[in-house]
Amino acid sequence: MKAFFCCCRCFTRTQLPGADPTRNRSLIGEEGEMGVSEMVKKENGDYVNSKDGAGSSSDSTSGILKNHDFSRGLESWHANCCRGFVVSCAVDHPEGMYDKPVGGYAVCTDRRESWQGLEQDITSKVSPGVAYTVSANVGASGPSDGHTDILATLKLECQNAATQYVFVGRCSVSKGRWGKLDGTFTLSSVPDRVVFYLEGPPPGVDLLVQHVIISRPCPIETGAAGLKDGDDNIILNPNFEDGTNNWTGRNCPVARYESMADGKVLPQTGKYFAAATQRTQDWNGIQQEITGRVQRKLAYEVTALVRINGAANATIRATLYVRLADSREQYVGIANVQATAENWVQLQGRFLLNPSPLTVMVYLEGPPAGIDILVNSFVVKHAAKVPPSPPPVIENPNYGVNILQNAALTDGTNSWTPLGNCTLSVATGSPRILPPAARDSVGAHARLNGNYILVTNRTQTWNGPSQMITDKVKLFLTYQVSAWVRAGRGGSGPQNVGVALSVDGQWVNGGQAEIEDDLWHEISGSFRIEKQPAREVMVYVQGPVSGVDLMVAGLQIFAVDRAARFRHLKKQTEKMRKRDVVLKFTGPGASGVAGTFVKVRQTQNSFPFGTMISRMNIDNEDFVDFFTKNFSWAVFGNELKWYWTESQRGSFNYRDADELVELCDAQGISLRGHCIFWEVVDVVQQWVRLLSDSDLAAAVQSRLTGLLGRYKGKFKHYDVNNEMLHGSFFQSRLGKDVRASMFKTAAQLDPSATLFVNDYHVEDGADTRSTPEKYIAQILDLQEQGAPVGGIGVQGHIDFPVGPIISLALDKLGILGLPIWFTELDVSSVNEHVRAEDLEVMMREIFAHPAVEGIVLWGFWELFMSRDNAHLVNAEGEVNEAGKRYLALRQEWMTNAHGHIDQEIEFGFRGFQGAYEVQIVVNSKKIKKTFMVDKGDSPALITIDL
Length: 946
Prior knowledge:
InterPro entries: CenC_carb-bd, Galactose-bd-like_sf, GH, GH10, GH10_dom. One of its GO terms (molecular function) is endo-1,4-beta-xylanase activity. It contains 14 helices and 45 strands. By secondary structure, the chain is an alpha+beta fold. It folds into 5 domains: 138 residues, Galactose-binding domain-like (Jelly Rolls), CATH 2.60.120.260; 135 residues, Jelly Rolls; 144 residues, Jelly Rolls; 76 residues, Immunoglobulin-like (Sandwich); 214 residues, Alpha-Beta Barrel (TIM Barrel), CATH 3.20.20.80. The strands form 9 sheets. An 8-stranded parallel barrel has the order 33-34-35-36-37-38-39-40, surrounded by 5 helices.
């Protein structure tokens, strides 16, 4: 959860169990709740170097591996579940086919599984944030004909967590030839154990390794890769060549060093580094004032080489401190990195200064008291503009065509593989129609044949049917996932069943369903891959506990034809959001205006479009200009939340919210109040958590009275208790009735406000905790307790939107008859064109659905969003492709009409609901009148008095 501009969700990630000698390593996946683009992203570890460990091999190029060339036999190496030995340069391998290497080479033989090979523990040799390079000469010998793949892999083991496997590199070798395997890896953190190993050839084929080297990047020379002290660096004395001039300690001493820890800590670049020592608070550190050298409304990039002393690892943060003329202080988080005592790591981030400050300081902080912060180089430069990615070219997308082989199971279980220790068979008796969301996507289709995969003898939750689809998936194409699933008897309580993908071992959510009966249930989800897989993409179905049979029918994965869906939505929008209008002109002389030219222009669509804003934003006049021109509603990112208004008990901060309310009032912008309470314990401030139950009840009442009393009549909506499907802090402490009580009290304190529930993943099939059915049950339960629930908030933090899935969820929620709002909408993609298309999917679905009454985006300005690559406007004010799409849609949903007044002294048109201006010229006089078109099915007859 981000402290600044946070959305209302945080992700958790779990992992599938690790490999064992009975399991094929190539089938291992990772389980979590992130999109593909997030899961494959690695921490930047450039420009990091450390001293080689003890016991390294014969020369300085051996890197971190011991005995890299097997000159000392298999010392430091382990043959994993197979037999290993070393062939010296004087002896040929038994087949005698290989060119004789300069030294010896290792052989792994008697291999019974593809994952068996050669490994070495490198736990003590690797550091987080470091980019390591792998280079090896490898070969294969045995019965295999043609080419054989050899892979380099990392095995990451953590106590009380599942083993994770990280793909490093691969090469294809032919019989009798050495091959060159190259790869790289970076670890964001170091687990309890890190094992590097080589694997891959089929069983029975020997794995040969001549040498393997894992090396760190070379030390950075001054001036390399952006660390040069150039004229564009606004930091003075960035490499400490002038001692600590221009640097000060933030409530702690700082000094320059050539080395520390008896010479074990040396600078990575240049001759010196600085250290902040004797730190007594986590905010103590090293700082430099950059007032006058940093310009407002320009994006800056911060790059620093950092390290710690006094602990194994700790987080270092770069922060911007800003003091304004009105004595206000702002703290802007720039970046953070996991630093260690062993190596220098690179910290990198960006910031934007909005106000005109009295003072600006940039500083490093973060580790607990007593840990030294070391910095070797510090650079702050104007961030270079990155050109946008071109629109992806997707050839032969084959929309609506299932990419799975033998999906109908007419050829038994061919093309399907059991994932783990389980048995697959084909049975009959499943539904013969596609699930609803799939039907809406593919249109006309053949009925299902009733066949299903029966999975028995399951020993793990992840056991189920799987199929490789590596060559079937196209980059940047959004795929819909659909299936019927059912669980057998034997489990206690509801069973969670999901369709998942393993992309190079990284888990991707394809949709989930919770099953607690003996019926077939629909799974509906989606995914997209935006980076070329290095190895493989596998789809599999998993979920019930071990021992419970799994049934899967009609599994479909197909590309979504968004253009066709848009055509349908335009027709739906025409019906839902427009109305026939007849302007009847009256008054003296009206009879003489027949045949007169008339022009109608819509000035405001009545459908609300809003955005999240922050107090920091409104110091930027460019931000305010875009905001006020293009949005009619606003919600505050943090400024109304309890942890912001009362971070310390009895110490209140309403100043930020007051100023945002003042701006919106002046601009006629309506307000959503987000949020009175937040049910998720992780975001409840510490002092509230520590209260006794009686004191907590009193604090809840005080919060309601203070907030709603202060802003009575100002906020049209309130999210009363945020994310009640995902948290239970207040309910667990104060009882079930507390939620309804919050609603009742809020309604008494501000009767004019509509009170909302608000939650995430309701619309995308990605989370069994927040299905439409569970949301409906929660709302009905609150209403039965007398809670005046007036609206349904669907947050809309969505990864790969598919129209029919969203529409079906809204259909279900719509049965309650309450207004639905998308309250925190954002979409994310590195490619601006894909992001724009995702945004269009969401906006068209929302605007076309009769139950939805408003859209609020969760921000639009770069560096002030809760998710990366979600912005519509770049940091320095340039509207990107997503922003252009937003503006184009808003323009599309405005009506302009013109023509001549008929003999009945009327002019008719069909237009969107909202405010209009009509203009005619009578007797050389231009007359302008305004009118409103409200909702309604029959034509609106509007009198225009001339």
